[in-house]
Here is the input.
Amino acid sequence: MQNDIKQTAKLAKEASLILASLGENIKNKALEKIYEELIANKDYIIAQNKEDLKNAQTLLDNGEISRAIYDRLELSDSKFDAMAEGILDVKNLKDPVNQTTWAMKLDEGLELYKVTCPIGVIGVIFEARPDVVVQIAALAIKSANAVLLKGGREAVLTNEALVKFIHQALDKVAAFPRNVINFFKSREDVSKMLELDDCIDLIIPRGGNSLVKFIQSNTKIPVLGHADGICHIYIDENADFELAKKVCVDSKIQYPSACNSVETILISEKISKEFLPELTAALKNEGVKVKGCEKCLEIDDTLEPANEDDWKSEYGDKIVSVKTVKDSDDAIAHINRYGSGHTDCIITRDKTSADKFMDLIDSAGVYHNVSTRFADGFRYGFGAEVGISTNKTHARGPVGLEGLTIYKYRLFGNGQIVASYSGKDAKKFLHERIV
Here is the structure.
């Protein structure tokens, strides 16, 4: 099996080089065919997903998977349609490859260009969410990267069906290389993939903390992703209460198991006595369990007590912790200490407070008066995303096409040599920007 995986990775590497040379028209044709093939086989794919859901219920009952994973598994009719439309959204985006982002004339007849190019081979390891297969495939093709996909056992039938029809679609596109989209399903395949640093250029994990930590600790391959989604909302003393309640409720209940769901709400102590009961009532009305610090319990004794671990928790469920803070400085300090660098928000009518918060919070996404659930590649206009990164190098936040490209420098000349630009009679560089 290890030889099979290594051989597949080598073939993917070869395919990535061919894919990098293809024009946008061929890549777009491939995306059109995938869309058509999936739509034509929608009923079969959804039927396979229902079988996965049935099998996953047993895993859930036995405590082998979490409720969050189970909730992400379903591919409903509307979710399928959105997934398919996402392929066309990606197709209609500008080709991210071979774009000149910077150019410099070093001397007459000596010009340097910084040009975008694919990363190469990307390994994606994910739990549940079969729509990830289609999102990754679409983004990879458009950005000219080959991918190795490893999905969770809970979605194996849906994933296999999607990959099957993606392959059927790509076989109909002349000049499109084979081995661009590859799928593994065995748990043992994860460890074997992580050893292939000579073939795989980037690993993207999409799953819980334990999965991401395992991958980061067991590979030499660069890893792009986030381990936790501990998102915060700070309710400033100048907040509009109705707006604050609306944003907090949406951030928690719109999709509680998502990594961009709010986990801790911080409230300025200047408004806590007035606002906390209103917020608690709004959240409880939506079935949310609210846990509070000691000061919050003094204001509302119906709350469950929160402890130090709650400030570090990604609940992935209809649970939220609340805490009072002295001011924005206290809120910023709390978030930078306990947050995961994912997405954090301030609710205020004061622009100065908002600007300060957005400058000092060290997160991939910093929001003002909007739900944390907006942290998503589709909502950002990326067509889709391969995941959300809290890294501080290469790509950060929702990662779309741009995050799947890197760049190379192309230097054009006519026999120039470095010796001409050194020594006593050295020529001087012009260093004139072209682009």
User: Anything to note?
Assistant: Residues 42-61 form the longest helix (20 residues). The first strand starts at residue 100 and ends at 107.
